[in-house]
Amino acid sequence: MLDLELDLEADLGIDTVKQAELFAAIRTHYNIPRREDLRLSDYNTLAKVIDFMANALANVSENQKLPAPIPAGAVKQTESPVSVSRINAQSTRIPSNGDGKLPLTGSVVVSGAGLGLPGKNRHVFDDSNIASILRGEIRIEPLSENLRRRMAEKRAIRLVKSEAGAIQEVIDHVDQTVKLGGQRGKFDLVEEFGVPADRVEATDISTQLAIAAGIEALRDAGIPLVMAYRRTSKGTYLPDRWKLPEALADETGVIFASAFPGLDRMAEETQRFYEVQNLESQIQQLRSLQRLISPDTEVYREIQRRADEMDENYVRWITTLTAGLSSVS
Question: What Å distances lie between residue 55 and 4, 36, 40, 42, 105, CA to CA?
Answer without folding.
Answer: 17, 15, 16, 14, 22
